[in-house]
Structures are given as structure tokens and as C-alpha cells.
Amino acid sequence: MAKYNKRSDCPVSCSLDVWGDKWSLLIIRDLINAKQCTYGDFLKSAEGIATNILASRLLALEENGLIEKLSHPDSKAKVLYKLTPKGIDLLPLMIEIGIWSEKYYDIDKVKKAELKEVKKNKEEYIKAKIKELRS
Amino acid sequence: MAKYNKRSDCPVSCSLDVWGDKWSLLIIRDLINAKQCTYGDFLKSAEGIATNILASRLLALEENGLIEKLSHPDSKAKVLYKLTPKGIDLLPLMIEIGIWSEKYYDIDKVKKAELKEVKKNKEEYIKAKIKELRS
DNA sequence: ATTTTTGCTTGCATATTGCAAGTGCAAATA
DNA sequence: TATTTGCACTTGCAATATGCAAGCAAAAAT
Hints:
By secondary structure, chain A is mostly helical.
């Protein structure tokens, strides 16, 4: 995203420059859930991102090294998006988002059950999930 | 922030509706660092937020229950902003942001040293910091 | 009494996002 | 082989959010 200007060298500031917009974290979320998505998969996602915004976010995330494009095994017309290791490393952050949200907002049942599992042993859950996402 | 519309009941989506803009997390960060700030303190912050944006973000964060306004002991002209328990609960999330940023970007020395401490015993650090922020 | 500080608000320019339609290429269908 | 459909985008324009500069009322300092 073409931000107005670079901000400070604070961790929060740096992060926001990379994924601090209205949609990037939702794209990351989809990729954590599904491991890989096509362009169409993202469009079908619950929140309904506009196609031009999706294209610009995917490009920015790719340029920032959080996701990568792979050729689809079934078809040349399709593209597969996956998280890079750098993107996968956002998992702990995403989990904390989940824990915080669950405490203060109504979350759907499936996510709630998943978070219950996470909280049993956070470290282990993260390790296992990372392994799964890298494979 | 008057978003176009509410999104899904996903944790990430809910969170983004509350703090998913360009400035909210930086305000939270300032309050975690300083424990309490005046309006002027935020304006002096490194990134340089515009005063109208600051006002609108502070209002939104207050409406969403993340921060609260207190009267300043020294002066009626001054206002103190502090995190609520709900705001303080964003600390684990902020720490994960720090850890991720440090891994992939150049962070200032002070923050790096702080993160080194955090990683020695994350649980303990969070507990202590929460206690400090609530007092 | 006058000036300065403090926490804002207002008006307007710029940037980002949202919506609808369209384009080019690959794949499926006739 | 010709035509239609699916997929990954692009383009144009409207709506919203952010950035910048100036202004304003109440409190505090001089």
C-alpha cells in the first residue's frame, strides 16, 4: 500500500506499514485457515472484499514477502497463493487477536472451539500449525 | 471509525473493526509505554498524527471501551487518557507484533532490549506489565 | 488584563476504498 | 473448430478516510 510516508522504526509502526490496512490480516487469516487459496477463494470469503482491493493487497503482501504465488497443478488459468515463512510467523499474532476478540465479542462457534484447543497448549498448537502450513 | 458496514463475526474481523485503522494501535502503544498521556503527548509522538485524526481515533477508542478519559490532577485544562482493562488486554497482541517486527525489520535499540527481556519469560512479563498498567 | 497553553473543531486537498463493468487468456462445451 | 464459460485480474468513477492548516473556547500562566 502506498502510504503517505514512512513512519518511525517502532515495531508497531513497521508492522502497520506492512499489514495495517483494512484487509491484509483477513487475507492472512484465510491463508492460515485454508493453507492455500486461489484469487476466487478470497473473493468468496465472508467479508466480501472488492476485486480491485484484493488485487492491490495481494500484490503488496507479495512485495512485502508475506505471501507467494504458485502455479496451480490443475490449470494454468488458476493461481495459488500461499504464506511464506514470514507470513506464517504472523500466526502467534493472529492467535492473540483471536483470544482478545473472544474475550470481548461474540465469535462464531467453530472459532471458539478452535481457540479452546489453542489455549490448552499455545506453544504446541503454534508449532504444529506452523509445521502444517510449511508443508 | 465509521466503517462502511459491519463484517463477519470472525475474531480478526471484529478486531479490525475496533483497532484496524492506521493509528489506533500506535495510540495503544503510547499508552502501554507511558501508562497515561495527554492529548498533547499523543501529538508529540514520533509518527506525527494529525490533530483531527487523533481526536476521532481517541473518541472511537473510548466508545469501544479501550481507553478512558480522566481529569488531570494538576489542571482542568488537561485531560488524561488511560487504557481500560479491555485495552490493557491488547498487551499480548502488542508483544507479538514486537517479536514479529524484530525478526524482519530494523527496530530501535531500546525496543530491542525490551523485547529481549520479554522473551526471557513472556508470561511473567505480561503479568507484571498488566499489574503496572492497572495501578 | 493579556498572553499562552490545552484540547479540540472546521474546511479543504489528497489518498484509499467500494462498486460495477470490462478485458484477456485458459479451459470446457458444442 | 467455434463458442461459451471460468478465472485472474484492470479500469473508471463514486464514497469514505486521512492529511494539513487554520481557528476557537476555556483554563492557566504572566
